## 1
Amino acid sequence: MSKIIRIEQLPTSIFTIIFSFLWYSFTQLPLIVGESLTKYSLIFNILGTIYVLVIAGSCIYVLSRIYGKYSTKNSSLSRIILFRYTLVFFIVMTAYNTFCDYIFPTTKNQKTIENMINGNTFFVGILIFTIIAPILEELIFRGLFINMIFKQNTFWVPVISSGIIFGSLHAASNIMEWLYYVIFGMILATSYKKTDTLAVPIALHMINNAISFFTTF
């Protein structure tokens, strides 16, 4: 176990990851409040956007600093190689999503998001789901989780564990939906471990969420 997990700092790592996820969850408060509003409010849109930018921006800054302390690797791959990796994982991700669409056209998590979006939450929704969520979720589930919990020379255990945690924190109504998010998380984790940079899974996550958001709304 000690050859895989950083046991000596495990309590601190778990606390940091849980606290980071709770902090990230607060960025979605305008979506919850806006869902209950029956009339369009320009003031709410402005204040909601400012709130999200402040909370998310501070969260990204702090988590990036923490990630920098624990991540000892810097990608040595050229931009061309990174682009090729991104393209390959994008093809894998697209093929996987296309296959899953035939099994379940939508998930409980997706339905929850659809119910949150209205005139008061549309812009904030774009900001959160296509930009902020991909950055923070990759920082937490790939950046912090993999580097704070596991040692650098491990591969499959952190990839699988990251996928399971990622899948478990997304709303799922059955085992198939849960497995969808688990495997999707594993694809993102593999792209991170293969490239040693969060830029690749963040880009893939952004593309995936943008396609999902704009084809729905």
## 2
Amino acid sequence: MDLRLSTSYAAAPEEVFAIITDRTFQEQVYERLRVSTYDVSTLDSGEDVVLRLRWETRSGDVSTDVRRFAGEKLVLAQTKIWHPAHDHGAREGDIEGEAVAGRITLTGHTSIIPTGDATTQTFDLHIVASTPAAGPHLEALVTEAIRIRLETKFELAWSWISGSF
């Protein structure tokens, strides 16, 4: 299953990058989502910046018919590797992740691109289940959890940028 989302921020690429790789910012995203558990880490790896995210949904977020495949809670883990900025501030990143004890894999790409007075961030993700019988249900569940997280992240970033948080 594919997921493509994008948004624009009224800020320079450097400011957007600083916000979205900030540990406190990422923790606030999870607090807004009211997830049961989360972990956020960032580290420099040569010229790249690595952002590792892991979170568990609340048990009520997993429907009864999917629980036999996914368990009581959905556990998701992602690694985003942000590469150095180009001359005009644009950045690209690679995304890898998994959910449901590795039965779902996530791969993709994200970018931050200056667009006039704004910066656009885009996500192109591919979510694949290795369990044929439950695959479509699990893919839909994970895709929806990621979509909700990204939309919440977009909203919080808009607040940080506007100073209204």
